[in-house]
Amino acid sequence: MSVGAISVNLWGKRVCAIAVDANGQLNTQFDPEFVKSNLDIAPINLPIDDLRQNPSQILRFDDLPKRTYRGLPAFLVDSLPDDFGNALVNQYMASKGILPRDVTVLDRLAYTGKRAMGAFEFEPASKDIVKNKAALEMSNLVEMARRALTGNLEDTPEQSLQDLLSVGTSAGGARAKAVITWNPKTNEVFGGQFDAPPGSEHWLLKFDGVGEDTELGLSEGYGKVEYAYYLMAKAAGIDMTESKLFEENGRSHFMTKRFDREGNQKIFYQSLCGLMEMDFRLKGVHDYQQYLRAINALGLGHDALSQAFRRIAFNIMARNCDDHTKNFGFLMGSDGVWKIAPAYDVMYAYNPKGEWTYQHLCGINGKFDGHTRADLLALAKQFDIKKAELILDEVKTAVSSWKSFAKDVEVSKKLTNEVWSNLKLL
User: Fold this and answer.
1) Which residues does the UniProt record annotate as the domain HipA N-terminal subdomain (predicted)?
2) Whether 407 and 294 share a structural domain
3) C-alpha distances in angstroms, 117 versus 81, 153, 167, 274, 384?
């Protein structure tokens, strides 16, 4: 039976309730006590001061693109499962005789429960939420992820399906990912929806050897490419959380420590897509100026602007064309103070024949490809970013060393040369 209403909670406080009315529309009402707090979770498009003017008002968000925001406030967009997570939920529900079209957005939030990225939690939580706290077998998870991508989870043992559901329904993006806790001493992997056991930490892992060709076997090599990009980005002065390769049966899975967890404490997270209501599915629309304006709107200062500019320069030179608005984020502590999130999904992403990555998804002054050094310097000047020339030189030096990073990580020659041939050293 579908969930008719859900409570959105943050650090033990109810933020709002969302309910379906008689016409099937979603209505949102903020909790009066939360509105009195200093937690401004949507300071740009739904500031807390505005909510205080009429704290009991019923809000509707039908004006936001339905496919992305699903009738919810934009600040919840990062809590919804994306492509891979939705595929898992759909197939699990199908195994229970429930068609995907009958699974509502509130059902999906209820299924997410306390497992969302960031700090939001949802009640009532689905009774189907996985409760297995035992260590998981990585090779089995890889096989289940491959099956999920092909829609072939029939006859899958219940425990194997539960294991994949325990790690695969929270993280965003189209690629198969696992939200895990990992013990670096024992190499044990556990489902990431629980508090990390003693000696373990919260990580996000991207499956290697699970691709569109559905072939499981030898590594596809993209885990190594992403790890080499991590090393290159760090050399370029870009702030990222610790990342590693998880080696398993000849595959190299890229893994990165979660920045929305400090121990087992949850940190509030918003992507640019949520904070600025900038639909990540749009092409040829968004501009890096909007990212920098968001930083100014949050009052994060010159250091954050400088770091953001460094990331923009890296994306341009290193051909990360998957620079949509869900790939830039911000964090807020329980004290209500915002900061720029570490960089993530920093990856070679260029396909001249692709639907999405044949050009950048965020432009510079209306240009989505063919950028020059002058374009970047003009952007820096517009936002009064100091030492822009030096930043570009440092990024260029790091990206120029791609072959060295690739060699250190043992990226295949084919992938090394493909990436090298498409870099733009400005």
Assistant:
1) 7-122
2) yes
3) 9, 25, 12, 13, 33
Torsion of CA 64, 272, 260, 133, to 10 degrees: 40
Answer yes or no: pTM beyond 0.90: yes
Same domain, 54 and 183: no
Residue with tokens 């325990």: 166
**pLDDT per residue over 140-155, tens digit each?**
777 777 776 666 666 6
Average pLDDT of the chain is 89
DSSP, res 320? B
CA-nearest of 405, 422, 395 to 231 is 405
pLDDT tens profile 34-61: 999 989 999 999 999 999 999 889 999 9
> Which of 257, 280, 297 represents a domain boundary (last residue)?
257
Q: At which residue do the structure tokens 């670096």 appear?
A: 184
Total Cβ atoms within 10 A of residue 313: 28
Q: Determine the structural domain holding residue 327 and report its residue range.
A: 267-422
Q: Are residues 279 and 226 in the same domain?
A: no
As a whole number of angstroms, the distance between CA 304 and CA 41 comes to 19
* CB within 8 Å of 347: residues ≥ 6 apart: 222, 225, 226, 229, 320, 322
**d(C-alpha 153, C-alpha 84), whole Å:** 14
Q: How far apart are CA 252 and CA 247, in angstroms?
A: 5
Q: Express each pLDDT in 283-334 by its tens digit.
A: 999 999 999 999 999 999 999 999 999 999 999 999 999 999 999 999 999 9
Of 225, 257, 289, the residue that ends a domain is 257
Whether the predicted pLDDT of 83 surpasses 90 = no
Task: Go through the chain and tell me how many residues it has.
Answer: 426
Q: Within this chain, do residues 285 and 403 fall inside the same structural domain, yes or no? A: yes
